[in-house]
Every structure is written in C-alpha cells, then in structure tokens.
Amino acid sequence: MSLDHIFRNARIAGREGETRDIGIKDGRFAAIEVKIEAYAPSEDLGGRLVVPGFCETHIHLDKSCLLGRCTCEKGTLDEAIAAVAAAKKTFTEEDVYARATRTLEKAIVQGTQCMRTHVEVDPRIGLTSVRALLKLRQAYAWAIDLKLCVFPQEGLLDDPGCEEIMVEALEMGCDVVGGAPYMDKDSHGQIARIFELAQRYD
User: Is 182 in contact with 194 (CB distance < 8 Å)?
Assistant: First the structure.
C-alpha cells in the first residue's frame, strides 16, 4: 500500500481500549487498521482522539469583528440590526475580506472544516460583502468548505432593488438563499419569494 502519511496509535470514537493507524493518501483517509504495514512518514499520536472536523452552520463573516464599530446598550435584536446597518455604510470589499479572514483563520485552526456564512445584500451595500466572501472562499478552499447564504437582513419586499441584488449574488456563485421575514410587513410574502428563488437557483 502506497501512502503519503501514517498517523499511528490514534484513538477512534466507538473503538474504546484499542488504537488504530490511519493512512493518508492524496489528503484523504485511505486506510484505518490496527497496524498499517507500509512505509511512509509517520507520527505517533500516543492514543490521542481523532475526530471529524467541526462544521459551523450559522455565522455572519461579513459582520465579524465589528465590536469596536457597533455599540449595543439595550442588547436587543432591533438595536443590533440598526447598529450594523449604520456600520455597513463604512464597509469596503477589503475591510470585509480582512475581518472575515481573521474569523475564518481562527475557526480553521480550531478544527472547523466546513462553514455556512450568511452574507447581507441590500441597495445600500450592494454586492460589496458578496465579492469579498467569494474571494475568501476561493483563497481558503484548500482548508475549508465555505458556503455562502445570501440574505436580505433589512427586508426584501419592503426594500426596492434588494431582490435584484440577491439574484445577482446567486448568479455570481452564492450557494443558498436565506430570508429575514420579520423585516417585511408581509412576512409570508417574503418566505414565498425566498422559496421561489431557492427553487430557481437549486
């Protein structure tokens, strides 16, 4: 068996009391055995536990690392949305990329291998955050599977022009579409429209 690397004496969940060797080929698990009889660079894990990578299912990379720019005295959702809406006026593609990179690198170092991030669009910020996060996804594809969920944080039906920007974001490569029905007067109408977009871009 030809392997690139072997992790020896790994503890695997569900196999208490015994260790296994894990053989790696082309960046993937190629063998898990009590003892792999092959030559490859190896590392003795000394019985340490090997687990799958973490998956972050809900994060907002475009709004990460904003503590110095946003203040919330009441701690309410409405206050937070208003504070971020004001801060978004200063967002640039470079700024979003830099802040998101800091957060993404921290997640990767802690073992996160997949992540779904929401990314806001509206007629005021346009596609600034989308462009930044699409570049980030490409730059870190070697380390993490990053999915982008485009959504209308400040409303869809009550925010003229937002839907066109969402469609453009989906056509640029955003993976999924999300909603914020609590932001529109017709919340059911927004939900219906979001599902229509999701079906069209599935």
Answer: no
CA 120 vs CA 32, 40, 95: distances in Å: 43, 46, 15
Is there a single domain that holds both residue 91 and residue 148?
Answer: yes
- CA 183 to CA 169: how far, in whole Å? 20
Q: The domain containing residue 39 runs over which residues?
A: 5-50
**Of 133, 132, 173, 124, whose CA–CA distance to 153 is shortest?**
124
Supply the pTM of this predicted model. 0.85
CB count, 10 Å around CB of 140? 18
Question: What is the tens place of the pLDDT at every residue in 24-39?
Answer: 999 899 999 999 999 9
Say yes or no: 19 and 112 in one domain.
Answer: no
